[in-house]
Amino acid sequence: MRDAYGPVDILRVATVEPPVPGPGEVIVRVRAASLNMADLDHLLGRPRASRVFTGLFRPTNRGVGVDVAGTVEALGPDATGFQPGDRVWADLFDSGHGALADQVRVAASALTPLPDRVSFDDAATAPHSGTLALQGLGAVGPIRPGERVLINGAGGCVGPFAVQIAKARGAEVTAVDHGDKLDFLRELGADHVIDYTREDVTRRDRRFDAVVDIADTRSVLAFRRCLAPGGRYVPIVRGIGSLAEKALLGPLIGGLTGTRMRAFLWTPNQRRDLDELGGLIVSGAVRPRIDRRYGLGDAVEAFRRLESGAARGKVLVIP
Ligand SMILES: NC(=O)c1ccc[n+]([C@@H]2O[C@H](COP(=O)([O-])OP(=O)(O)OC[C@H]3O[C@@H](n4cnc5c(N)ncnc54)[C@H](OP(=O)(O)O)[C@@H]3O)[C@@H](O)[C@H]2O)c1
After folding, report:
1. Mean of the pLDDT values across residues 136-155?
2. Which of 22, 70, 210, 258 could serve as a FRET partner for 194 with CA atoms 20 to 30 Å apart?
């Protein structure tokens, strides 16, 4: 847990009283948790504007970690839909955080049953980043088999899910990132890879039917260059400035160029998304990639691994 916004070494391991479930709440015994860029942003309190929601001067939630997979340990009054021992998973982004713990208190309504055939470790990789990938691909509209789909910034937390889901939908996938992440992306099924440090994907001859921009480092003016007629572009925006630019300028540029460009805001922790992700994992269409596993006591090291950008797949924290 942590008491203030700050760098990863403000994290500390604390022994606290076991949580007690309130009305409608469940205690989940955490079997695996995974780290996302959102966890790092939450730790650092960035962008600063986000502190309006997470606590102006200090974080409202001292707990850390959103992706959780585990078993139901106890139920509070009126908590329905689950029994002790049930396997569950969730993204705690809007329900208190705190996945990096032995046990976490969660509203029963925030939990989704976890299919028996999905391991806890695999499950923990997916709720946050897998949902962003699903919803980002949903926002560019239905992907038709054979469509040329570009995933920009594909080698981080969200991209590996986006690449695999787009492939499962029959797309011809081009993935942009750099260094040895490109081999990793080929392994995941990307048909083409581009190193953004060597080549500007928006200045190639090749056009795309759909672009999911996870890196969000360029303007809509750049991306309109690489859209095919009728092409669709969706950024998973990282900040208020980008949101404003993409929400205001995107529809205008799209309208003028016969494309569709718009910003997108996700809805975290939807049961239908987790059910779909579970189905994709069970079928083998999505193979969660695990970079390294850390114990709770090594959470600072786990965050450092995420922060370094060196991870190939998700960083897990196993209580
Ligand atoms: N809009 C919303 O509703 C919403 C909701 C939740 C989260 N988010 C945001 O969405 C992001 C999720 O992405 P993520 O977790 O996958 O991030 P990530 O792990 O940082 O991955 C981004 C990848 O893009 C690469 N990259 C950096 N610059 C690039 C460039 N110019 N061109 C192409 N690729 C580039 C990075 O490589 P290197 O860093 O190694 O260079 C990294 O591999 C988070 O930042 C989060 O804040 C948005």
Report:
1. 96
2. 258
